[in-house]
Amino acid sequence: MVYKIVKLGHPVLEQVAGPVENFGTPELQQFVDDMFETMYAHKGVGLAAPQVNSARRLTVIDTSNGEDPAARLVLINPEIVKLEGSQLGEEGCLSIPGFREDVKRAMKATVRARDVQGVEFETTGDELLARAMQHEVDHLNGILFLQHLSALKRDLIRRKIRKLQKAGEWD
Ligand code: NI
Fold first, then answer.
1. Given strand 73-84, what is the order of strands in its sheet?
2. Cα–Cα distance between 171 and 164 in angstroms, integer?
3. Which domains are delineated in the chain?
4. Active-site residue, selected from the candidate residues 14, 79, 136, 169
5. Residue 129 Cα, ligand 1 centroid: separation in angstroms?
């Protein structure tokens, strides 16, 4: 099923998500499948559980937009263990539709996480994949990309969103 994605203003997006404790269950596998389905339906390259109003430390990433099954990445209880270099590039978020801004991120990221079965693994990515990993792990800590912008830019976007909320065009 395709979940509804919650937007900026929903408190779940600014909470620290809790760890997944039960691995290898049909419920967890179904949730991961539904996360991918939801992400592809919205043409995203990453989706974190809080964005579908589930405050748990789980994210899915696919920088191939569904074209390469090998690019599907499930990160459960992820931790960034290494960041190297830097990159500046445009970033957006399915929970802040219509707004894209340049965000500085590390060029290369190494993440330690568990898979659906609970098996721990490490993976390293660079460029867009590294950006997605950093963006999604941020979500699990209640951090949105707006927090990486200048206060001026962030306030401008928040003001625009408040107008959309008042007009009933943001829910
Ligand atoms: Ni996002």
1. 46-48, 58-61, 73-84, 108-114, 120-126
2. 9
3. 11-166 (3.90.45.10)
4. 136
5. 13
What is the tens place of the pLDDT at every residue in 57-112? 999 999 998 999 999 999 999 999 999 999 999 999 999 999 999 999 999 999 99
> Is 136 tagged catalytic?
yes
Span from the CA of 52 to the centroid of ligand 1 (angstroms): 11
The pTM of this model reads 0.97
For CA atoms 89, 92, 98, 102, the dihedral sign is negative
